[in-house]
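TA notes, week 10

Several of you asked for a full example with nothing omitted. So below is the full record: C-alpha cells for the whole chain, then the designed sequence directly under it. When grading your own attempts, check the secondary structure regions first.
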C-alpha cells in the first residue's frame, strides 16, 4: 500500500465514522468516497482498469475492519458500519497518538484489558497482564528524517538534523517539489509502522494487534498536527521542545480561523511576508 492510499483510506474511515446511520448502501458509499477523496482512483489502486466489482474488492481489501455486508436493498449491497470497533476505537483519545509520537513524555501507553490506556510515567508499575508500548525515541525520529532525505536525495539542501526541527522543516518548505507534503506523509507511514513493530515485539495476538492498530489510527485522526515551537529556534529537539508542541499549533489554528472569517477588504490590509504569500499562491496553483 502506498502512502497516498493509506491517507485516503484513513479519510474514508473517518467519514464513515461520522456517517449519520449505522448502515450505508454501496451506491451511497461510492458517493461518500468520491466526496471525501475525489483524487483517488480506485481502479488504479485495485489494478482493475475495467470490469465490475471494483468497489466490493476495495472494501474487502481496505475497509473490512469497518464495513460488513449485512443485507441487500434491491440489487445494491447494504453494509453495516462498525464505528465502535468493539466499543473502543470510537472513544480513542487523541492523546494516545500524541503520546506515542513524542519522546520524553510524562505519560506511557499500556495495553490493559485488550485496550490502550495512558498512565503516569512516574513510578510506572504494571501487573503481569499489562504491557507497555514505548513511545518513539529521538533517535528513531532522526532516523526517519535521515531516511527521508536519503530517499529524496536532498540531504545537502537542508540543515543538519541536529538543528531544531523547526529549522529543518522550514528548510524543507523552501525546496521546490512539494517535499514538505511528502515528508508529512512519509513520517506518518513510518510512525504507524513503528507502532506495529512495537506490538510485534510484545508478541500481541494478530486479532488484538489489528484492533489496537485501528484504535491508534482513530486517535491519530482525532489528534491535531503538532509542530515544534518556533521560539525554540536555537535549541535542539529535546524534552522541553516536546512539552510545548501544542502551543504553536493552537496559535496557528486561531490565526487561520480569524483569517477565514475576515472580509476581503480587511484581508488586503494584513501585512504578510511576500515570500510566504508567493509560495502559497504557487501551492494553490499546483493544486488546481
Amino acid at each position: 500500500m502506498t502512502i497516498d492510499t493509506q491517507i485516503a483510506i484513513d479519510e474514508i474511515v473517518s467519514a464513515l465514522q461520522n456517517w449519520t446511520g449505522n448502515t450505508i448502501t454501496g451506491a451511497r458509499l461510492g458517493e461518500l468516497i468520491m466526496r471525501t477523496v475525489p483524487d483517488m482512483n480506485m481502479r488504479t489502486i485495485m489494478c482493475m482498469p475495467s470490469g465490475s466489482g471494483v468497489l466490493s474488492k476495495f472494501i474487502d481489501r481496505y475497509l473490512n475492519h469497518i464495513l460488513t455486508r449485512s443485507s441487500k436493498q434491491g440489487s445494491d449491497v447494504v453494509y453495516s458500519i462498525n464505528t465502535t470497533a468493539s466499543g473502543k476505537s470510537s472513544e480513542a483519545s487523541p492523546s494516545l497518538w500524541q503520546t506515542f509520537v513524542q519522546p520524553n513524555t510524562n505519560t506511557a501507553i499500556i495495553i490493559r484489558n485488550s485496550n490502550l490506556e495512558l498512565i503516569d510515567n512516574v513510578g510506572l508499575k504494571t501487573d503481569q497482564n499489562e504491557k507497555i508500548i514505548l513511545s518513539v525515541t529521538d533517535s528513531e525520529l532522526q532516523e526517519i528524517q535521515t531516511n527521508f532525505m536519503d530517499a529524496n536525495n536532498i540531504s545537502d539542501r537542508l540543515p543538519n538534523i541536529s538543528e531544531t526541527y523547526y529549522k529543518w522543516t522550514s528548510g524543507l518548505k523552501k525546496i521546490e517539489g512539494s517535499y514538505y507534503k511528502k515528508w508529512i506523509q512519509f513520517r506518518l507511514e513510518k510512525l504507524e509502522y513503528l507502532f506495529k513493530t512495537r506490538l510485534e515485539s510484545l508478541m500481541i495476538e494478530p486479532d488484538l494487534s489489528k484492533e489496537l492498530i485501528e484504535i491508534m489510527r482513530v486517535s491519530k485522526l482525532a489528534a491535531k498536527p503538532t509542530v515544534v515551537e518556533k521560539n525554540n529556534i536555537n535549541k535542539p529537539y529535546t524534552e522541553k521542545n516536546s512539552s510545548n508542541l501544542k502551543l504553536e499549533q493552537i496559535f496557528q489554528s486561531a490565526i487561520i480561523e480569524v483569517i477565514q472569517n475576515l472580509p476581503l477588504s480587511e484581508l488586503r490590509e494584513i501585512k504578510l511576508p511576500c515570500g510566504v504569500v508567493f509560495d502559497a499562491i504557487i501551492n494553490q496553483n499546483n493544486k488546481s
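The first strand starts at residue 23 and ends at 25. Use that as a sanity check on your answer.
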